[in-house]
Amino acid sequence: MAGRPVTFLRAIEATLLCYTGRRDLPELVAALRSFFHHVGRPARLVIGTDGTMDAAGLAVLRSLPVAPAIWQPPDFAPPPGAPPVLVDYFQAHPLGKKVCLLMRAQELAPFVFSDSDILFLPGAAELAKRLSDLTAPGWFMQDCAFSLDRRMLDAGAPLAPGVNSGLLAFLRPVPFDDALNRFARLQVPGEFFTEQTIVHLAMTQAGCQPLPPDLYILQNNDQWLWRDLHVKPGTAARHYISSFRHKMWLRVRFNM
Q: What is the model's pTM?
C-alpha cells in the first residue's frame, strides 16, 4: 500500500510532520496517503519515530510517494538545560517524545502535524487554503471533551474542551516556555494528557485558533455503531481515536 502511486491534487508550501512507532505504521501509511491525495503534496515530509521502528518499518516509510526525512529520538531530544522532569518524561513516555518533536519542529514552520489515526477526506482542500491564512499563528483540532491535565491549569480555569493534539497547523513558531515551566513545577511524572496540555497551553497562549469542528471531526458518540455518522461530503478530516479505530479501516476499504 505504501508505495502505490497517488494522485496529488495540488502542492502545498508547508511541511507535513508525523510521529509514529512500529505498532501504528499501517495507520500512518493510510493517513499519509489520504493527506497526499486530499490536501496536497507537502514541500517536505518529516516523520519522527518513538524508537520502536525496525528496519522493515523504515523501508516501508522510505517507499512512500514522498520521500521522508526520518527523525529518531536523538534528533529531537530535550534541549540542553531542559528541566529534569521533561528529560525523564521524554525518556519514559512516548508522548514525552512527541512534545519534544513538536518543540524541535517549530523551526520547520509553516507545518502541519498529524497523528497516524487522522484520515483526510475530500473536504481537506479547506486545509490547503487555510495554510495561507495568516490571521492566526496556528490552527488546531478541537477536542470533544475535557481532555487536559488539570494540575497544569490555572485555578478556576473553565473546564471546556480544548486543543486535541492529533491535528495541528503551525504557521509560525510558537513558544512552549510557560507550558514547560508549569510542567516542571509539578515535580511529578507526566500522565496521559500532559502532552496534550502542554500543546494546549502553548497554542492558546500564542493566539492559535480552533479548526471548524464540523469539518475537522473528533466525536465518539458513534463508537458503538457500524456506520460512520459524522463524515459528510464536505468533511475535511476525522480523528479515529482508539475506541473506534476500526472505523478508520472501514472508511479506507469501503468508504463507510
A: 0.94
